[in-house]
Amino acid sequence: MTTGWKASDIPDQSGRTAVVTGANSGIGLVTARELARRGARVVLACRSEQRGKEAAAGITREVPGALVEFTPLDLADLSSIRDFADSYPYDRLDLLINNAGVMALPYGRTADGFETQFGVNHLGHFALTGLLLPHLLRTPAARVVTVSSGLHALSNIDIGDLNSERNYRRWIAYGRSKTANLLFTHALAARLATAGSDVVAAAAHPGYASTNLQSAGVRMEGRRAAERIVELGNRIIAQPAESGALPTLYAATEPGVQPDSFTGPRIQGWRGAPTKSWRAKWTTNDVASERLWVASEQLTGVTYEGLKT
């Protein structure tokens, strides 16, 4: 890979359609903006209507003529995911960017009873991808890019306790959800290959990027001192969201990106231009990825028609 790859290296995206989850702020917003800058039609899939519409307006101000639109999507609610997929207005879908996520939250549950981090970070995107699969399969050279994290290294999944009911530790649960993202990508890439599809399933991670993701958990608990520490780290150590979005943009647009690849920042996995990233061996385990896939289908009720093994 080219060590100096930057947003201006994104190939022309005219005529292509992208869905970016969590596109109202941080890495998702930058990803949506830069795809629109290069000519793509971008659907901002966000939980908050106000923030989603504000993001769309902001992109339009910065990129006159940008083709952007907001559509509500709450990844913590399967009914919202189904509504989004049912109302998707376009025949083609070139890029599905599974970006939205939550980090290190106090224990909670989604509308469907799943532990929040596992439910939003993995199951929500598993369901969304499956429901949008017909659009992806009919679009030549489509891609699914799922945003994981270097912190997947904190833990493998526990297939017997996917909802962390026995012992909840917020950072371990986060690591498990990010491992689940990589196992999902591994299994999806294998199924697409078996089906003879040219859809590419890849993964990326931003390194340490300054977004509101890090502070959400401590803010929910009113831990002001911890929140200030996180904000200080974002200012001093983290790279800006513009840099953090580059691995995702590379995986989504660069020619020759391989199925089941994992792209991250070049410098020790924390910052810098996109490059091939280290990943734990357990994230390419065929048995684990298959068991998670089967469990995810059962939990969400979403089956991937056309990709049966």
Rounded average pLDDT: 90
**Class computed from helices, strands and strand pairing:** alpha/beta
Radius of gyration: 18 Å
| Strand coverage percent | 5-15%
What is the rounded distance between the termini? 32 Å
Low-confidence stretches: 214-220, 225-236
Number of strands: 8
Dominant shape: globular
Element-by-element helix/strand order: EHEHEHEHEHEHHHHEEH
Q: Helical content, roughly? A: 40-55%
Given the structure, what is the number of helices? Answer: 10
Strand order in the sheet with the most strands: 3-2-1-4-5-6-7-8
Report the biggest beta sheet as strand number plus sense, adding barrel if it closes: 8 strands, mixed
How would the blueprint of this fold be written?
Elements: E1 17-21, H1 26-37, E2 41-46, H2 49-62, E3 67-72, H3 78-87, E4 95-98, H4 116-137, E5 143-147, H5 170-194, E6 200-204, H6 213-220, H7 224-236, H8 241-244, H9 246-253, E7 262-267, E8 271-276, H10 286-300
Parallel strand pairs: 1-2, 1-4, 2-3, 4-5, 5-6, 6-7
Antiparallel strand pairs: 7-8
Give a structural overview.
Strand 4 (95-98), helix 4 (116-137) and strand 5 (143-147) form a beta-alpha-beta unit. Helices cover 42% and strands 14% of the residues. The radius of gyration is 18 Å and the shape is globular. Helix 6 packs antiparallel against helix 7. It is built from ten helices and eight strands. It is an alpha/beta fold and 309 residues long.
